[in-house]
Amino acid sequence: MSKKNSEDPGSWFAEPPLRGFQQRFRTTHRLWHQRSAYQTVEIYETVPFGRILVLDGAVQTTQRDEFIYHEMLALVPLISHGCPASVAIVGGGDGGTLRRVLACPTVTRVVQVELDPVVTDVCRQYLPEIAAGSFSDPRVQLIFGDGAQFLQQAEEAFDVILVDSTDPVGPALVLFSEAFYRSASRALRPGGLIVTQSGSPFLMPEELRRTAANMRQAFPLVRTYLALVPSYPGVVWSFTLGSTGPDPLALSLEAVEERLAQWRLSPRYYTPAVHFAAFALPAFLSQGCRGDSRYDLLPADETLSEQQA
Ligand code: AG3
Fold first, then answer.
1. Is the CB of 219 under 6 A from ligand 1?
2. Which domain holds residue 35?
3. For all residues of the chain together, what is the average pLDDT?
4. Nearest residue CA, atom 13 of ligand 1?
5. How far apart are CA 17 and CA 234, in angstroms?
6. What is the best residue among 116, 197, 235, 237 to mutate for testing ligand 1's pocket, by most ligand atoms within 8 Å of CB?
7. Distance from the CA of 167 to the center of ligand 1, in angstroms?
């Protein structure tokens, strides 16, 4: 029976290949699929990761490893800030980022701007443990709309802005632009930080470079950090942090320990050592992030032959 399963070609999900590289998930069911006003929304039951949310063919979150991405997106800037009261989240319809933000007891207000109500509805139905009721916390205001426009017109300011979006291609591209980072920096209080997910450093190095370059136009301090997210293409994932003041690397290990203890957080991925280790980039990657495509590990898609691509 297990032999039959492993040979059944119909029960695998895979994202489109990037740079001639692809990983796939054994699936047992497709539980939901719908074309919303903005994108294709799917939920699969998979053998390795439990249920997964897929938007326009790209894996966004899984039951088994969502904690890695969400902790690393939220906790690195929240701990670096030290006393965040007001937080804005752009995207993040599954609620996993929101949950980590609300776990921080200094936070008194969160505005979340999600484009697509279908994503929040479907996650509420199929992945309720990811948000774990966060959207009904009285500190939260959920707005359905365009996050870029929201920040451009925002009349209030935030300590931390988290961009929990789809990849820096297609409809989310505006969230990685210089103009977006300029309005984000205007919407931050002094000492404020922004973090965005910025794709796979091996499979999307161009996107990572552009994100960092655009952020440098609007923020005096920009740093790239990494986390291991097994369900995302290439497993190694990048985040780009912009700061108007605090440097996440200027903290001491003890200060990170103390903040975690004070806030009574016990994350599953993030630790004080991971906080610093995440910023340690292999030499070729840090050269790549600074803008030199000669350091890219894998050949770009356009250099692959038809057959290979
Ligand atoms: N974050 C999505 C990260 C992008 C994944 N990309 C990919 N699989 N190609 C948003 C969802 C998590 N809250």
1. no
2. 11-62
3. 94
4. 92
5. 11
6. 197
7. 6
Q: For residues 31 and 100, state if they share a domain.
A: no
Tokens 């980072």 correspond to: 181
Do 54 and 118 have their domain in common? no
- Does a structural domain hold residue 1? no
Statement to judge: residues 215 and 259 lie in one domain: yes
Would you say the CB of residue 164 lies under 6 angstroms from ligand 1?
yes
- Provide the token pair at 277: 């280790």
**pLDDT at position 307 over 80:** no
For ligand 1, whether the C-beta of 15 sits within 6 Å is yes
For residue range 73-114, list pLDDT tens digits in order: 999 999 999 999 999 999 999 999 999 999 999 999 999 999
Torsion over CA: 24, 119, 92, 105 (sign): negative
Nearest CA to ligand 1 atom 5: 60
Ligand 1 probe mutation, 41, 59, 135, most atoms within 8 A of CB: 59
* Measured distance CA(28)–CA(73) in Å, rounded: 30
Q: Among this protein's residues, is 296 annotated catalytic?
A: no
CATH assignment of the domain containing 20: 2.30.140.10
Give domain status of residue 218, yes or no: yes
At 300, list the tokens. 């770009």
Please report whether residue 265 resides in a domain.
yes
CA distance 3 to 270: 38
